[in-house]
Amino acid sequence: MVETSYYILLSASLFTLGILGVLVRRNAIVVFMSVELMLNAANLAFVAFARQQGNIDGQVLVFFVITVAAAEVAVGLALLVTIFRNKQTADVDAISQLHG
Amino acid sequence: MSFELFMFLVTAAIALAGGVGMIVARNTVHSALFLLLNFFAIAVLFLLLHSPFLFAIQLTIYAGAIMVLFLFVVMLLGVESIEDRTKDRLAGQLWLSVVLTLILMVQAITITLLAEPAESQAQNTALLDQLADPALIGATLFTTYLLPFQITGVILLVGIVGVVVLHQRAHLYGPLSETEREFAEQYAAERTASGQPAEQAS
After folding, report:
1. Which domains does chain B have, with CATH numbers?
2. A4-95: CATH number
3. Chain A interface includes B78 (CB < 8 A)
4. ipTM of this complex > 0.95?
């Protein structure tokens, strides 16, 4: 049996990696992928705690997170495609104006 | 070292390598593939945590559907290009974010290590086998979590409609291409020069 704290340590490391990706990358698609990495890290913590508590609720929550993440990715990528058509770039610094 | 711990360490190393690779890869397609590696590793970790249902979901939804969407958009837009680091608006942005992230990571790790170990059910294999049953997840989903389940359905519907509307607008009113924009600006400038009121070139 692997300690729950090992999973939490891994989850924390993956989450901070995701934050690092959001902060240092300029390509909006890679920023999006980093957000997915953070969601996955949170899912891992959910399942680890669900096992520790002997409870099914954590797994159900992960199911919800995955579903909502799918919707979020679809809308986000559609926005990116629209922005790319307008600006011809996926650089997050280039998308700094609200006025199109 | 038990076999489970060995499997955990190997999979955790693969997951971390996937995360690091995604951030450092210059090519966006490589980033997506590293993220895929990370998703696979996390799926195996779900299996180690006695939840085969989430293992399957992770592979089909995340590694299957979501990553295909990412790769599709990357290849559609053709943004596999190299980023220009010299164009940073904030000087030292890279190092500042690395330092701040490291501080956050140290905090998270310290808190985890300092926490009192709670009473764990992880040794109770009979209970874990019971929890690994997908039927239990289904039953919980349709009883305790019925309302959130319905709301998730609405969110997915809104997502679908949103995507369709976004693409519809782009198709109907269509953003102008570079040459069309230049032409419109030139036209507006000529009209202003000849004393006619400038039309809104949208």
Report:
1. 1-82 (1.20.120.1200), 145-197 (no CATH)
2. 1.10.287.3510
3. no
4. no
